[in-house]
Each structure stands twice: as structure tokens, then as C-alpha cells.
Amino acid sequence: MARGSEIFEPLADKTVLVTGSQDDRCRRVAEKYGFKNVVTPADIVTAYPTIWPFNEIWTDYYTKSARPLPLPINPADPSGSLKIDAMFIFNDPRDWALDTQIILDLLLSRSGILGTYSTKNGDPSLPNRGFQQEGQPSLFFSNPDLFWAAAYHLPRLGQGGFRSAFDGVWAEVTGGASLTKTVIGKPYAQTYHYAERVLQTYRNAMLGASSELSAPKLDHVFMIGDNPESDIRGANEFDSPDGVDWTSILVKTGVYRKGTEPKYEPAIIVDDVLMAVKWALDREGYHYEPKDLVHDDVV
After folding, report:
1. Are 60 and 74 in contact (CB under 8 A)?
2. Cys staple from 65: which of 24, 180, 266, 276, with CB 3.0 to 4.6 Å?
């Protein structure tokens, strides 16, 4: 989502559903990206509690962050009913059940009008047996990580876990229809392409260059990460359009568990970020004094 305002500018004036994070944070993030009409699952379930009948323990939590819906859910009057134009999973959903139900309802709806059901669903004469063929809202995930390193001593399920669970529900409901969605973040190439652009811009500024043409070419990027299936895989598979060489370094301080064989092999496995930086500098032939690298500064 690093360049969300750039990618999703055409949706700025549309009504979007966002979920992830706690309280009202995902809405505030969306509004900072430029979205003007943001709806959350809390807004919907507070206005229409029967949309998910098992929300008793969440009621007080949702009430604190809910805002009035811009339009009611009224399938009898589609022109005056709540219509969602896109759905964004900004962070790890807290209430998988509610979010799954609302996203599913919208993917099965007619043109994103909540409370409707497309008559094209299940039609064998249509592409994908009619599913997602009647203007349903686009679905975006911001992070594919199945696991992430939290305070617990073992990795915890991340947004990728929610996506996998939703994929399973969708397959059961639709009889195996394809689910059209966009997944952004590591290991996908657009994230690394964007990172390379940012690094080049920063490098030009450091060198006092007025443009990329006046600065020496960026030749090498070291990707330091703790997750073999996102950080390391992305760096290994990224094919730089500018011919920049990417080298992956895996650290033992996150998702990766010492003693296991990573699914995607890095150039080297080191203890922590400081050791990764030292290895990269040594490989590039950069001579430094030990006092120049203080662990707190690097991290």
C-alpha cells in the first residue's frame, strides 16, 4: 500500500469498504490516502446487527468506532441502497467471521449493492459460471504473508492466513469458481519495483544528482528480511527492469526458525540485521570502522 494514493486515485470519490487493524485506524489510513467515502464492517454490523448474528461479544467494540452508513441497505430500492465499489484488506482482520460474511455478500451481490444477489451466479453459460460477472466490487489484499513474527515465540497467522481461509470459503460457496483479486506486497514484483525507484531517488539526493541520468547507475540492492516466503522469494524472483542485481539476506530474528530449511534460499543466513549490513558492506568492498556500525543505529 506504499503507493496507494497513486494506484487507487480513480476510486477516491467512490464508496469503499476497508477492514483490518483495530478500532477506526484502517478508516483513518484510507482517508489519508484520499478516499472520501469509507465504510467499515463496524459501520455495517452496527446499523444492521442481523447481517452477522454471532457478534454479541464484539458489539461494544464496534459501537465505539462505527459511523452512520452513507445509505441504508435496501435491496428493494437499489438506486437508494448502499453500494460498495471496492474492498480493501488494509491489515490483518480482527473479526474474520464478520469480514468474511460481508466480503462474500458483496462478491455475490449485484453491482456491489449490499443485500442483493446476482442472478448470474452459478450460470454455466457465463465465464466463471457467472460469478463476479455483474459489476461486483474489486477485492484488494495489501499483504500476502501467511505468518509474521509477533511477541509469541512461534510465528502467528497474518493477513495471508485470512486470505487462504476466505479462498476456502469462496471455493465451497461457488463450487470452485475462480476468485478475482489483487494481492499487493512482498513477494509481488510491483513492490520491489517501487522500492527500487525509491532507493534510486534517495541515492540521487545523497549524491547531489539532479536526475537519474546524471547519477551513476544503481547496480546492487541487498534485501534483508526474516520471511523466506515473502522477503526472500520476492528478492530472488524480481527481474529489475533497469538491470539492478538483487541479493537476499535472511535473518534469524523473525519468521524464520533456526535449523529449518527455507523454502526460498537466500544468498546467506545471518543472526540479525547488523550482521546482514556488515556482510553486504564486506561483499561490496566497503571498508568501515567497527565504531561506525552501532546496532541500535542500524536497527
Report:
1. no
2. 24
For residue 87, is pLDDT > 90? yes
Cα separation, 265 vs 231, whole angstroms: 11
pLDDT mean over 185-203: 88
CA angle, residues 6, 249, 253, in degrees to nearest 5:
95
pLDDT class of 1 with cuts at 50, 70, 90: very low
Q: How far apart are CA 1 and CA 7, in angstroms?
A: 9
Q: Cα separation of 281 and 289, whole Å?
A: 11
7-30 mean pLDDT:
85
Full-model pTM: 0.75
Amino acid 46 reads T
Neighbours of 33 (CB within 10 A): 22
Over residues 85-110, mean pLDDT: 95
Nearest 5°: phi and psi at 164?
Answer: -65, -40
